[in-house]
């Protein structure tokens, strides 16, 4: 599926394809196509997304995480559930996320309720990580005060010695979360700020599509 790119006339923008992405009927197919193009064009971390959560008082917070799973069930990321974001999701299990690809002049927004993935999914992803990343996840008390970097590195060294060449078990508090979008919005840069936008809103088992002004 060819995807519309930057508009002619935007300085440095590539040529336009004839297909109009705002006419797509399947947001997940469109999401997958844009991800594939981003992975080929972005210099690093094409799966980086800004994740916004809010605490029990409604105060918002945002940080960049990595999108690690994408299918019609939702968007999956992994974190320490005892971190600030984990506590916020426990108090208010809803989130919004945006992926922005400067090289393509595109972004995708998503928002909806959040739920934990299964322990089996968390185990499988944790086991796929580099061994040093697994040890780092065990050592890190994410979001909590740290005296200095040598303290962290000493904990990493101790864990490396403890596990030697054996398996590094996933901590119970380290797990995946899935955003189950109620809305997905696709944005394409256009010349002179005349961008293209389409929003998909969940309706039962399907989606309602609406093109938006820039």
TrEMBL record:
Pfam assignment, any one: PNP_phzG_C
Keyword Flavoprotein assigned: yes
Domain of life the protein comes from: Bacteria
Substrates-to-products reaction catalysed: pyridoxamine 5'-phosphate + O2 + H2O = pyridoxal 5'-phosphate + H2O2 + NH4(+); pyridoxine 5'-phosphate + O2 = pyridoxal 5'-phosphate + H2O2
Annotated residues for binding of substrate: 68, 125, 129, 133, 193-195
Keyword field: Flavoprotein, FMN, Oxidoreductase, Pyridoxine biosynthesis
Cofactor: FMN
GO molecular function, one term: FMN binding
Ranges where the record places region Disordered: 1-20
Pyridoxine 5'-phosphate oxidase dimerisation C-terminal domain mapped to chain residues: 174-214
Residues noted as binding FMN in the record, renumbered to the chain: 63-68, 78-79, 85, 107, 142-143, 187, 197
Compositional bias per record (Basic and acidic residues), positions renumbered to this chain: 1-10
Record GO biological process: pyridoxine biosynthetic process
Pathway given in the UniProt record: Cofactor metabolism; pyridoxal 5'-phosphate salvage; pyridoxal 5'-phosphate from pyridoxamine 5'-phosphate: step 1/1; Cofactor metabolism; pyridoxal 5'-phosphate salvage; pyridoxal 5'-phosphate from pyridoxine 5'-phosphate: step 1/1
Cofactor mode of binding and number, as noted: Binds 1 FMN per subunit.
EC number assigned by the record: 1.4.3.5
Domain called Pyridoxamine 5'-phosphate oxidase N-terminal: residue spans: 43-159
PANTHER family in UniProt: PYRIDOXINE-5'-PHOSPHATE OXIDASE, PYRIDOXINE-5-PHOSPHATE OXIDASE
Biological role stated in the UniProt entry: Catalyzes the oxidation of either pyridoxine 5'-phosphate (PNP) or pyridoxamine 5'-phosphate (PMP) into pyridoxal 5'-phosphate (PLP).
Family: Belongs to the pyridoxamine 5'-phosphate oxidase family.
NCBIfam families to which the protein is assigned, alphabetical: pdxH, PRK05679.1
Subunit description: Homodimer.
Descriptive protein name: Pyridoxine/pyridoxamine 5'-phosphate oxidase
Organism: Methylorubrum populi
